[in-house]
Amino acid sequence: MDTQSGWEPATRIPLYALTGGRTVPELTLRLDTQVRTLPAHTVTDLPPEPQQLLDLCEGADRSVAELAGTLHLPVPLVMVMVSDLLKDRALRMVIPHPTDGDHRTAMVNAFLAGLQARWEVTSDAGC
């Protein structure tokens, strides 16, 4: 720490550096876009954040919103990383089948359950 100014140099890089300064994904994605890691992908030597994203999508469908929340990263940054990994064929987009029911309702219910569990909200809280 600099004792004269009280300023301590940052030990982290700015988040936009992970995407080369890009804030808009090349592919059109939505918050509920679901992705999964392709088993035979050949992408290697990734920075920690994209590698964590790939690990989370290993064997499970994950939405962009879920990835951003789990990784504690801004949604636009995650969208750029997902877009890049889709283009590199490390991820594939998952299209829900019409027979799967309303996947948006299920996703919203899971999101609400997660919020309730995190903040211990009860259904009789008067909301």
Note down, in words, how this protein is organized.
The structure is a single chain. The chain is mostly helical. The chain has helices at residues 48-56, 64-71, 75-87, 103-119, and strands at 34-37, 62-63, 91-94. A three-stranded antiparallel β-sheet has the order 2-1-3.
Secondary structure layout plus pairing:
Blueprint lengths: L33 E4 L10 H9 L5 E2 H8 L3 H13 L3 E4 L8 H17 L8
Antiparallel strand pairs: 1-2, 1-3
Helix pairs in contact: 2-3
Indicate the percent of residues in helices: 25-40%
Q: Indicate the radius of gyration in whole angstroms.
A: 18 Å
Q: Major sheet: order of its strands?
A: 2-1-3
Give the class from helix and strand content and strand pairing: mainly alpha
Mean pLDDT: 81
**H/E series, N to C?**
EHEHHEH
Separation, N- and C-terminal Cα atoms: 47 Å
What would the keywords be for this entry?
127 residues, mainly alpha, three-stranded antiparallel beta sheet, 4 helices, 8% strand, globular
Structure described in brief:
The protein has 127 residues and is mainly alpha-helical. It is built from four helices and three strands.
